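Input (structure):
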């Protein structure tokens, strides 16, 4: 970047600023509509820079719907999926990186090939399996199908490949077994990629819609992206205000987590990029 002319740097900054505005505008519009009064929405008096903030729709959402229950369900499911995925992906990645066994490359390519299969292609088979197990309207149905991730296995395997083999050999000479090396050496060293994957896994689970819609029928089991659709009213203005207020509430966790963890996401994605 030091050799780039100043006018090109200026153009890059202008382009980045414009792109940031385009990305941020829907978020700002959501906040503006969510904290506007129904009277302002009905009269089309909502400004992008509001003169006053109304909590009317926020209180209506909290009192009229089970949104807090939806958020608790989603938090529980998201953290459960996150914990299980971290465990399964770390173990599988460790095996692919350090163990030698027959069919290792074929199995790894088979795992990666699942990334090319769209979720819509397997959703019916998965639903029939869940239904046959009588898991509809249970947390099992929301968690078990997402117990592992091919993306997580790939990222962690790439990261484990960056660990020097001499470190593992030295640990074995000191009497450290495979599981001891995994727990005391590999896991601590893989924290950057694990943190990166944890953030993306949580946000992905938080934003799930189609699968929870299929496997939950009771309001008490709904996840937040499905439950938010209950914010409907005969009054169009109130519907818009309630919907935007609800969206403001449910986007807070993912925004906060990404705001504090975006650096880990970037560092983790770059951590294992030097090994193939």
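Output (sequence):
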């Amino acid at each position: 970047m030091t050799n780039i002319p100043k006018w090109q740097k200026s153009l890059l900054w202008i382009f980045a600023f414009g792109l940031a505005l385009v990305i941020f505008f829907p978020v700002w519009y959501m906040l503006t509509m969510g904290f506007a009064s129904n009277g302002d929405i009905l009269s089309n008096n909502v400004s992008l820079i509001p003169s006053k903030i109304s909590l009317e729709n926020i209180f209506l959402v909290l009192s009229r719907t089970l949104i807090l229950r939806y958020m608790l369900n989603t938090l529980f499911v998201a953290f459960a999926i996150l914990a299980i995925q971290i465990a399964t992906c770390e173990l599988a990645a460790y095996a692919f990186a350090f163990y030698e066994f027959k069919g290792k490359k074929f199995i790894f390519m088979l795992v990666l090939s699942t990334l090319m299969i769209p979720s819509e292609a397997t959703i019916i088979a998965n639903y029939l399996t869940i239904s046959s197990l009588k898991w509809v309207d249970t947390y099992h149905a929301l968690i078990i199908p997402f117990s592992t991730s091919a993306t997580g296995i790939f990222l962690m395997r790439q990261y484990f490949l960056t660990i020097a083999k001499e470190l593992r050999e030295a640990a074995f000479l000191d009497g450290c077994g495979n599981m001891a090396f995994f727990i005391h050496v590999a896991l601590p060293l893989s924290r950057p990629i694990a943190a990166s994957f944890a953030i993306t896994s949580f946000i992905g689970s938080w934003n799930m819609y189609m699968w929870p819609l299929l496997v939950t029928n009771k309001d008490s089991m709904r996840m937040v992206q499905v439950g938010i659709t209950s914010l409907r009213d005969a009054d169009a203005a109130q519907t818009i205000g309630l919907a935007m207020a609800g969206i403001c509430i449910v986007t807070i966790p993912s925004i906060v987590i990404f705001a504090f963890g975006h650096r880990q996401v970037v560092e983790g994605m770059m951590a294992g990029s030097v090994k193939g």
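Notes: Residues 65-271 form a domain with the MetI-like fold fold (CATH 1.10.3720.10). The mean pLDDT is 83.
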